[in-house]
Amino acid sequence: MRALGSVLKGASSAPEGEGGAASGACGRKAEGGERSGLRRRPTTRRACVHGAAPQTGLPKHDLDRTTWTLTWRLLRGGGRHGLLTAGLSVAASAVCTTLLLLCVGGNLGFESRATHADWRTPAKVAESRAVAVQATGTTFRDGEPVTVIDVAELPGERGEAPAPPGMPRFPAPGEVWTSPALGELPGEETTGTLGSDALTRPGERVAVVGHHADDPEMTTPRGTDPRRAGDIVTPTPIADFTGERDPGGPHAPYQDLMTIITVLVVIPLLVLGASSARLSVSRRDVRLATLRLLGAAPGRIAGITAAESAVTGAAGAVAGALGYAALLPLASQLPVAGGSWFVRDLWVGTPVLLGVLVGVVLMVVGSALAGLRQVVVGPLGVVRRSRAPRMSIVRAVLFVVVLLVYWQLSDRRELSVDAMTYFFAVIFAALSVVGPWAVGQLGTLVARMARRPATLLAGRRLLDDPKSAWRAISGLALASFVAGFFALFSLGGAPPWGSPDQLALAVPEERITQVRQEAGERLARADIEATVGTNDDWVATGTGEDTERQVTATVADPNQLDAAREVLTGLLPGQYPVTGNDVDWQSQQFSGDYQHATFAVLGASFAIAITSTGISAAGTVLDRRRTYGLLHLAGTPLRTLDAARRTESVLPAVVLTGGSLLTGIFCAAPLTLAGGKPELDAGSTALLAGCLALGFVGLAGASAASRPLLRTVAQEAGPRPE
Amino acid sequence: MTLSKSYGATRALDGVDIAVHAGESVAVMGPSGSGKSTLLHCLANIERPDSGQVLLADERIDELREPARSELRRTRFGFVFQSGQLLPELPAVENVALPLMLGGTPRRTAEQRARQWFPPLGLTGKEDSRPGALSGGQAQRVALARALVTDPRVVFADEPTGALDQATGQEVIRLLTEVTREQRAALVVVTHDASVARWCDRTAHVRDGRLVDEVGGAGSVGAGHSGADGIDVPDGTGCTDGIAVAGARAEVPR
Predict the structure, then answer these.
(1) ipTM surpassing 0.85
(2) A627 FRET partner, CA 20 to 30 A, in A106, A264, B87, B123?
(3) Host domain of residue B223
(4) Are the beta carbons of B67 and A19 separated by less than 8 Å?
(5) Are A22 and A44 in contact (CB under 8 A)?
(6) What are the tens digits of pLDDT across the range B120-130?
(7) Mean pLDDT over each residue of chain B, to the nearest integer
(8) In this structure, which topology does domain A502-583 adopt according to CATH?
């Protein structure tokens, strides 16, 4: 391990600033232009000339241990700032992991909800195999849906009917089992309480009612209503309660929405993870470059980087997993698709958990290795930057082509969620391609026009490293894309059917008189003031025959709506009286949840983006701490340094978030998803303005948060290299 | 009351009394940890002494508040460090023009004045090169230009040749001493290298925070050199002040 010791000594004593002793010497020699002290330091000279040669001569079986030892020494030897960057990397990985797990949990949660609702849409079997009959109806109480499942065991030697989910046995005729949230059905005595297996969520209102097979409820057909997927199921012979998934069921739009949300959140999360990984690496770039100069092979450098980022990534991932577990009870209280969640539904399970952890660590390691590419490719890559990189205009052309293709493919067509997901990914990628180019152009313009030192510094820095500048704001830019998209793409609107205080029943032509008379009598007996009438609207759905008309009861007092609903229930077997609002409940619920999801996604996107920006700002300060320190020593006011830093982040943020936002609006314009219409109304404009205000306040906050760090590094620095 | 400075229990400076005249160059030498860098920091107003006074001309500068200290360093002092003081993103001419711009000089004027420093320092044609494209010696000469472009009264150099080979280092210190002498600026150089110190008018030896010896004048390489023998300095203002570290003295020899 003597060789290891000498490598470490060289690394720890090497200057970090540009033109440091070790690197500077090799740099001069490499350029072949000047005299140096290399002749007096043959070891260094050899390392410089044969940079890729085997470095230590250690036996191969020691290399791994050497790598880990070096990694550990670099981690421990990083000092306070090293610990800070490592801590930020761990924190960012933790946030990434927690949010990723919550996203995955959300997807699995909706799938679990759908699975727990499957048994209510029975799978029809042949009469010969059937052991029971099952039908579903939906009534309402306080505007909330109550799912009523009617079941009846078929007579004869057919075998015993299985117990429905959440019940210990098949209900006998006349028995009523209800969910805890429902309590009891009006006028019915509750036999037992349904277990959670019968329910999609804790607050769901469900009743299972036992019947004889020849009861009218079990023999009268129930027509399908495309507006009410899953609400109504005609009596169906069944052999068990496995059910059959309705692809257009009420959970489908939520699953689609969650997929889109995941894509929209994951991309900024990847940016966050990558920026944190690069933050961790950037601080050690120079030391690793020095190791490279001393002869460490690219594999060793990559190994050290991978090991270090794996350590911080793994620590963050584990912390994030613990955070996810801790947040699960809180997350389960989020009222989505009608109410809160069972914790079991949001738990991703051990295999997925481990998969996400491994994925986060791999992402962090990959980002760190990508950030180190310069060091690995050439030992002078980090130490000497001789000219600003040029961003090809091909990037801009590519971006325009992607947008044009998108417009052609999506214009006036209804895209599937899968297609939209792919499009989002492609457009995000296109934004990431054009972003550095745009930053470079902006840098050129600013540097050319600058009159103040801070502006000149900012412009030159943007021009010097447009990719880093883009990374710092890319999260915000992508969040702005999301804001632009959602702002234009709104759902909602009043239901077009009936009126909210008018109950309707679908009645066959020949029974209208009788039903109207009986309805009037029942309402009168219950002392409910209501007007009974008939019309040809389409609110309620009966047996589905074309001859049905609507018998309506318009209550004088809206508070008596549920009372009227109760007295009219049972007038027609298997049918519950409904208002236009009731018919539209799924759409209304989804619309409300969509709004909440929009805010949640935007909030999360901006929070992630602001965190990324803050981390990048801190990383930039640490990267340039020596330059900042020396400039401060030479009398440069801190406010000038700070102004340069601010300009460097705010200018591209303003330009590129604006561009991304317009791209989002552009992408939403041709789409019509789930009945949504592209229009920029007052609410959407307010949403946009709010998001932008939040984004820029956050950006200013993120920048301000690293100001104390700037002050510290500027005042800590001495004239000598560290 | 002479200059003292402690870091915790460590006494870095212990009763130092030194004066540097306008146009004079002083090398500060001593073993590592002897206090020479602390002396430079106190002189340059980077750190406050625990006791004693630092005077620039008739002005006591060690009691200034931070903004005024920053302004003083920017406008009346010039700094040359061992390495890393150039901004890698900026072309050489913008690096040199930056202190002028910070002082309020319009960019165009600042760059014009900065360009004037390139030929005398042997940097013709390097104006638009970024520091990464310069050799160590060239980069250090750009740093010299940046330190001198504001016509400072005092130039502080901390191991200015520490990152350079012998020949390049000698060239840089020659330029530094000649230009400051031509500008009538005081020069304080902290160095380990006796061959660098020989270019200065005097050498002050520091040990254990004390000034133990001063050697000056005739033996120095730079003694008797004039700016006319060396290089033609643009717009030298010929300032007449120097800097003094002293106890009770409030004057600077002119």
Answers:
(1) no
(2) B123
(3) 3-91+153-246
(4) no
(5) yes
(6) 888 889 999 98
(7) 80
(8) Alpha-Beta Plaits (3.30.70)
